[in-house]
Design goal:
It is elongated and about 50 Å long. It is built from 7 helices and no strands. The model has no long low-confidence stretch (mean pLDDT 78). 68% of the residues lie in helices and 0% in strands. With 113 residues, the chain is mainly alpha-helical.
Amino acid sequence: MIMKIVAKKFKNLRMQSGFTQQYVADSIGVSLSTLSRIENNPGEAKGNQLDQLAKFYKTTLGKIFSEDEKQAQDLLDGIKCQITIPASCSSEQLIQAAKELQKTEKEKQAQCK
């Protein structure tokens, strides 16, 4: 369900900006078919394509993946770690990793109280 929302957000950002798919694809260095796939199913994105797209629109993945932008930023601000993401990592794997990090962080906070 969230991936459909994310797809719609990316498409809406492009349309609101008045950009063609070809222009956006060229700007972030992907093919037109790749951008089309991302706008229809962001779960198929590879590596940092979603991050590149978010940066192109001057936003963050936290804002894109959250219906409540403040909540997403608060969650991201609360997680202090550095990770290396392989280029072959799909966005679904990235989302799963973020959820696991969030769970681990909540467990650590609960232990400190």
